[in-house]
Amino acid sequence: MFSSKDAFKKHFLEKYEMMFGKSFEESTLSELYHTLGQMVREYVSHAWIETNERNRANQKKQVYYFSIEFLLGRLLGNNLLNLGIRDVVEEGLKDLGVHLTDVEEQEVDAGLGNGGLGRLAACFLDSLASLSLPGHGVGIRYKHGLFDQKIIDGYQVELPEQWLRNGNVWEIRKESQSVEVKFGGEVQVSYGNGRLMFHHVNAETVTAVPYDMPIIGYKNNTVNTLRLWSAEPTQFRPEKGDVMKYKRETEAISEFLYPDDSHIEGKILRLKQQYFLVSAGLKSIVSTYLKSNDHLRNFHHKVAIHVNDTHPVLAIPELMRILMDEYGMGWDEAWEITTNTISYTNHTTLSEALEKWPISIFKPLLPRIYMIVEEINERFCRSLWNRYPGDWKRIEEMAIIAHGVIKMAHLAIVGSHSVNGVAKIHTDILKKREMKLFYEYYPEKFNNKTNGITHRRWLLKANPNLAKTICDAIGDKWIANPQKLASLVPFAKDDSFKQKIYEVKQNNKRALAKRIKQMTGIVVDEQSMFDVQVKRLHAYKRQLLNILHIMYLYNRLHEDAKFSITPRTFIFGAKASPGYYYAKKIIKLINTLAAKVNGDPKTRDVLKVIFLENYRVSLAEEIIPAADVSEQISTASKEASGTGNMKFMMNGAITLGTLDGANIEILEEVGPNNIFTFGLTADQVLAYQKNGGYRAIEYYHHDKDLNQVIDQLINGFFPVPTHEFETIYDSLLVQNDEYFVLKDFRSYVRAHERVGAAYGDWDSWMEKSIINIAKSGHFSSDRTIQEYADEIWGITRSV
Ligand code: 26W
After folding, report:
1. 59-74+109-451+785-793 placed in CATH 3.90.1570.10
2. What family does the entry list (predicted)?
3. CA distance linking residue 65 with residue 55, whole number of Å
4. Where are the domains of the chain?
5. Could you report the per-residue pLDDT of 243-259, keeping only the tens digit for each?
6. Cα 114 to ligand 1 centroid, rounded to whole Å
7. What is the pLDDT of residue 238?
8. Closest Cα to atom 11, ligand 1: which residue?
């Protein structure tokens, strides 16, 4: 049906009429989206079945990527691209008077994630499929993804997200493959067959129903599966009790995604979600495995399970439980299989994000799992005792259960064969600080896998004109092998190529300016430098540093007639966790500043501040290709990797960043002339934290520009009650500026001066931009995934 434009048109019109029972002339864009989506879904089913059959037949090892979040974004455009049918569809629709992009915009983002961790999982699925690797995702089918953000009077307001409202053309409900997950109840122990047997009784049962989504590889006939589980009431519920309450509580498990990014919420529902995911996921994997194998003794040779952060780490005790209680295996053998099956990635060192579950919540909800965790802990502590006899302090620090809580990261390290960080510096910090004692004990488990992003979505799809310009210069080999983008290096000195790259950027800026006008009513200067910071709102990411610098520019423009700047448009996008008071105040501050700056006749020609509401994957795809400058300004040591930084680089923006996360590796790739770095190093930050010695107030007193902007937070400079930004003011001066905003301020100002000057030199700026694109191949998630496949999972291509 996609073999030619005409074949497509014919099928499309037939399909439309079949689905909607009316003629094409009466169609709406939304209906056209559903028609096309349905056609594509049907079209992939053949390759999907074939991939599954191939996997069954060749009996190669499979990896299952367990993640509580998958931030997929829109799927239609990406699926058309990967299937290689985008042009046919675009042309066919054009004949019918329809723009494909208008149809694509009908799709609601699949927003089943908060930020970096969830988007990484989505990029990984794309790379697994595109590399023909047998790897699948396992997650939760939340009815509501991350909240929709509205800005009202400058404040963030959260609305429930409704991605399933009009159905989801990409999923297939597989009710017949449902499994049951048990909560609560008690464990009864009996003796039989020469061993202890454990029976979980009086439990509340929930039915987990899988919904499968196809994950389409790039032009390679591979269609992997993302299996999302939905919680439903069990049909034959033996227990009595309040049926309505049971229904409500059951459905609540997959009702909504927790909107927390880097902050744990010790809610029982969250723990239920975690166990629901791993128990359902494992049961289905084990039953698939047993269709082609008589026993589970070689499970780890054929199955790898990856846990994305600690959220799915109950996979460890759950797999132990299945092997022992359901299949009668002894502890040692089950442990050998489990630890060899499971691998774990850590995504943050922020202490407030490290999961610890109180026993008081955990034990009643998961009594048998708790017993197993206790046993793992006891055996682990015993082995520590053998290695470090008498070193109680160390054992206490390393224990999985201590002081009434279960430390999920400890469980993850002990129960897996691989522990990795997501950028070199992050892995180093894990080894020498956060997980130092574990690294001493298990050095062989630790390794680094620097993150990556899929160049298919973030370059080919989001920036088609750039992709074409690259192909015109160096051919298209880089699409299959992104490291070949390096062939662009010589073109960094080629004037006509620079001109073309410039024109692509200008067109993208024009398109974004249009979107900005449509969303905010504000007209921005397309010639100005687009300086962008889009990411979750968090104190450590220091949107505040960016704001204070803009306030500084504003002040200088007002006070110093000789002061001039490269015209700049500062663009922000960020969601704050609904309970994160401070982050929400920063959003209000950005919007308050925007109103002031944009309305000021003296500055508005050279300075604009834009806050784009509801930042999400689809909006990122419009913003990133239009950026000149990429703000990656976290306090060094705090951002584990960052992945936005890679997306900007790949689209020709220059990074203005701290020596944090993967910024350091970007610097290594592009060299110091093609990135602007500033601020404290991670070692300096860590030293301050260890030894003290930082006094923010001194910077406030000694730097008059800084003094002025900080005072302006509370002195009536902004037309808001003076207490509005007091919390922010206090965080800097009363609480001694935990994130070193004041310390890095001057260095940031100077870095901005260098950026402004460099932007004024067109030739050298274009050179930098091209070098960034050329060196971005290293940050394709294809590279990352190949490393995981070779060094952690031991999987190989299925064809
Ligand atoms: C339990 C609450 C919670 C929720 C999410 C704690 C922690 C998280 C994530 C680990 C936060 C996260 O998304 N981390 C980001 O992971 C990205 C992918 O590896 C990195 O690029 C980011 O630097 C890191 O902040």
Report:
1. no
2. Belongs to the glycogen phosphorylase family.
3. 16
4. 1-58+75-108, 59-74+109-451+785-793, 505-779
5. 899 999 999 999 999 99
6. 8
7. 59
8. 262
